[in-house]
């Protein structure tokens, strides 16, 4: 929200230097995101009055001006604007001023005439887009006074009461122990009453708990006065006409959105607040035609919709130059209804922004009367006596009991009940009962965020000023929890993968339905996000791979061909975990793509054995041995270049090359390798999650080779695992050094060369002991797999 500090100061009955004012706004909890100094800090942009003008002797389109800037002799300024004239009050930039566009004024001559400043157009000081002429200011603005400062303020969603100038002024005043008072409209009403002229009915009472309206007859549509135009422009709005400008002005001043209808265009002089019929259509002010749903709240007349409630008015009932009778609306709409309608139709307005956060139900009559008074003053006409008001009983907001001791305990202060009461009263709270030990406090209707005593304590802390609250260390003993088995495992994985050259990636927990289907999951069975930001974030991810695969594509598109990433996080697979209906479980995934690290001898592309080696390296850190079995039927992995990852007989993940269809669907270049690991199962099987450290062996190892003939389809991993088991404690390692098919090996068979490393940590093995182990291994492999020694 952009706010003019000149306008803000008009509500304060005391003066503050500009920097102190901005600091007060920040300490009140309203973040000042941007400042545009229009002279209020620098003093180089002031209010000036043109005293006289004369043609430039050497340029037909330039004018010589004498300008009173409030400091001694008038300034001589050369101006090229066609609208400059004597008596005009204008923004005047002095020498040394730096305008918002970065231009710094220096003494100069223009066509031989000295110019001691600059008269500014609206676009030059960021108060509009007009560059056709000099901005004209109200005639009663004091000459020589510093012009203004615009502040962009970020208001948190729980503080809609500060989305207006009066609300910010109330906070600033309270921070200094003062109060501000809202305007008190004085209306001259006709003798005839609004009843009988306007019919009002509210069918959707849950979506519109309160609706009020007033009637002004005989108004004349025209331009707004300069003071109103300038305040609207300072807030980032353009002037339209005096009636529409009044509704915008009251919105900015008091924070409650209003809408003006052309009364004569309302069929039957009637207002009906109802839900739209499914498929019902209406045109809104910006010219678009909307197709409504049964959840959209509609303001209608006897013929059809005239406004999309809380969002935008209808084209057929808008105020135009021919309007004379105005029906003025002020309503309280359900925030959820307006938020959904705004998002459903992709329309966000100043009104919907405020209605979505909650407006002041009790303060809307003040806004209605304030607007009626201003329309009467600026557009003439007659305010018809009374207003229509249809409402359901408001929710009962019980007073809050605030204990003085609790305030001081939480804040570490020693405040009295009187001090606490003063703080709250300055903010507009009503203290109905007070004593040395407790207060009974009623929150004002505009504070929709106050429900409990801790909410009030937060208000006390703000007004006491956080800087005045002493810092003390808590008296507590911090005892860290022992990490769980899974936490130890995850940290070990992070360290291990980083040592292997992988970089950690983090992706959203939400993916699109098409991404889930691409990795073999039914999107209909996944938990859906109730209010997704985009269609690409519609469901909870069943796997980490979609995010990593997309990251590979992104890197390749940024000319980063080498990609080595891993991610550890939660996935959701309903039905996979009995104790959790959503199936939430931890998972790890890694991807490799492109050429490996550069080497003096050249580079090579990553292959299956790189990603497999990464998994084996991790397993060694867990203190377990993994085996691999062919994986042939997966939408994620290549049917001939992938494998199950197993610990014992349990599958704990998959590893291999991505399926060509999946890679093509993501426009990936080259072969991409990936692995997916189920951390909950690995944590269960890996014990404490880390390998035990051993000393360096003191005794030598012995290697022995076997050449075995086995079935061609036998997985080498099974053969290695069986050989290690058969070798017992003496078999440290089993590796394959050769695979052969062809001459001297019968069809359907293959020869595998197997090496075993044997060692005892107690003594040097004898030849007889080695022979006994090798015979045991040979017998075991023959019994399990029909393996025979190759002759």
Give the termini separation.
88 Å
Report the sheet with the most strands, covering strand number, pairing sense and barrel closure.
7 strands, mixed
Q: Give the amount of beta strand, in percent.
A: 25-35%
- Computed structural class: alpha+beta
Secondary structure: helix percent: 25-40%
Global mean pLDDT: 92
The number of helices is 19
Shape from CA axes?
A: elongated
Global Rg: 39 Å
Stretches where pLDDT is under 50 for at least 5 consecutive residues are none
Characterise the protein shown here:
- With 791 residues, the protein is α+β, with helices and mostly antiparallel strands.
- It contains 19 helices and 39 strands.
- The strands form ten sheets. A seven-stranded mixed beta sheet has the order 27-30-31-35-34-33-32, with helices on both faces. Strands 11, 13, 14, 21, 22 and 23 form a six-stranded mixed beta sheet that branches. Strands 5-4-3-6-9 form a five-stranded antiparallel beta sheet, with no helix packed on it.
- Strand 4 and strand 5 (75-79) form a beta hairpin.
- The longest helix is centred in the last third of the chain and has 19 residues, at 767-785.
- The chain is elongated, with a radius of gyration of 39 Å.
- The relative contact order is 0.06.
- The model has no long low-confidence stretch (mean pLDDT 92).
């Amino acid at each position: 929200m952009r706010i003019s500090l000149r306008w803000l100061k008009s509500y304060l009955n005391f003066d503050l230097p500009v920097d102190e004012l901005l600091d007060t706004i920040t300490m009140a909890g309203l973040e000042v995101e941007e400042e545009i100094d229009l002279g209020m800090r620098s003093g180089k942009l002031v209010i000036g009055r043109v005293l006289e003008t004369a043609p430039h002797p050497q340029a037909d389109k330039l004018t010589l001006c004498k300008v009173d800037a409030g400091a001694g002799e008038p300034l001589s300024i050369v101006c090229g604007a066609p609208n400059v004239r004597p008596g005009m009050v204008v923004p005047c930039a002095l020498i040394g001023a730096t305008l918002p566009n970065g231009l710094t004024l220096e003494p100069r001559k223009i066509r031989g005439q000295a110019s001691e400043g600059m008269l500014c157009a609206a676009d030059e000081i960021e108060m509009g887009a007009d560059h056709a002429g000099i901005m004209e200011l109200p005639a009663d603005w004091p000459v020589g006074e510093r012009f203004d400062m615009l502040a962009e303020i970020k208001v948190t969603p729980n503080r809609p009461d500060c989305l207006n100038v009066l609300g910010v002024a109330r906070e600033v005043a309270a921070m200094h122990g003062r109060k501000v008072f809202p305007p008190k409209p004085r209306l001259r009403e006709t003798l005839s009453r609004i009843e009988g002229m306007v019919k009002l009915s509210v069918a959707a009472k849950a979506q519109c708990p309160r609706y009020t309206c007033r009637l002004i007859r005989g108004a004349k549509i025209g331009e707004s006065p300069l003071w109103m135009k300038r305040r609207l422009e300072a807030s980032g709005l353009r002037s339209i006409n005096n009636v529409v400008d009044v509704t915008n002005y009251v919105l900015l001043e008091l924070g409650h959105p209003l809408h003006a209808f052309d009364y004569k265009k309302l069929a039957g002089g009637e207002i009906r607040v109802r839900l739209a019929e499914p498929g019902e259509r209406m045109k809104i002010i910006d010219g678009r035609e909307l197709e409504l749903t049964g959840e959209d709240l509609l303001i209608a007349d006897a013929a059809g919709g005239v406004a999309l409630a809380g969002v935008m008015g209808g084209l057929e009932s808008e105020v135009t130059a021919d309007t004379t009778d105005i029906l003025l609306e002020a309503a309280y709409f359900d925030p959820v209804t307006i938020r959904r309608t705004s998002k459903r139709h992709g329309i966000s307005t100043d009104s919907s922004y405020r209605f979505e956060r909650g407006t002041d139900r009790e303060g809307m009559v003040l806004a209605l009367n304030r607007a009626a008074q201003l329309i009467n003053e600026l557009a003439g006409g007659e305010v018809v006596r009374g207003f229509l008001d249809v409402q359901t009983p408001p929710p009962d907001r019980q007073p809050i009991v605030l204990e003085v001791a609790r305030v001081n305990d939480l804040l570490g202060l020693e405040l009295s009940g009187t001090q606490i009461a003063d703080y709250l009263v300055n903010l507009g709270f009503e203290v109905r009962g007070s004593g040395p030990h407790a207060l009974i406090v009623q929150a004002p209707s505009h504070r929709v965020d106050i429900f409990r005593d801790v909410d009030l304590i937060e208000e006390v802390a703000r007004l006491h000023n956080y800087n005045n609250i002493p810092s003390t260390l808590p008296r507590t003993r911090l005892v860290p929890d022992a990490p769980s088995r899974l936490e130890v495992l995850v940290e070990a994985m992070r360290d291990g993968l980083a040592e292997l050259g992988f970089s950690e990636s983090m992706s959203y927990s939400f993916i699109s339905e098409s991404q889930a289907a691409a990795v073999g999951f039914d999107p209909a069975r996944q938990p859906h996000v109730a209010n997704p930001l985009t269609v690409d974030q519609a469901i909870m991810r069943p796997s980490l791979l979609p995010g990593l695969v997309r990251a590979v594509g992104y890197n390749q598109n940024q000319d980063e061909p080498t990609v080595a990433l891993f991610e550890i996080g939660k996935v959701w697979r309903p039905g996979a975990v009995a104790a959790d209906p959503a199936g939430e479980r931890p998972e790890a995934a890694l991807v490799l793509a492109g050429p490996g690290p550069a080497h003096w001898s050249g580079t090579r592309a990553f292959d299956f054995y790189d990603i497999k080696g990464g998994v084996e390296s991790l397993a060694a850190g867990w203190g377990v041995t993994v085996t691999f079995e062919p994986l042939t039927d997966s939408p994620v992995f290549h049917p001939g270049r992938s494998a199950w990852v197993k610990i014992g007989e349990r599958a704990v993940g998959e590893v291999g090359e991505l399926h060509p269809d999946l890679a093509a669907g993501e426009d990936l270049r080259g072969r991409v390798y990936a692995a997916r690991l189920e951390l909950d199962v690995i944590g269960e099987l890996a014990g404490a999650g880390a390998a035990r450290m051993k000393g360096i062996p003191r005794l030598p190892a012995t290697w022995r080779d076997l050449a075995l003939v086995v079935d061609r389809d036998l997985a080498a991993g099974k053969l290695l695992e069986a050989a290690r088991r058969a070798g017992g404690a003496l078999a440290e390692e089993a590796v394959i050094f050769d695979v052969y098919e062809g001459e001297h090996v019968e069809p359907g068979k293959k020869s595998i060369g197997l090496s075993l490393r044997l060692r005892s940590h107690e003594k040097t093995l004898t030849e007889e002991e080695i022979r006994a182990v090798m015979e045991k291994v040979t017998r075991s492999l023959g019994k399990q797999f029909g393996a025979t020694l190759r002759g």
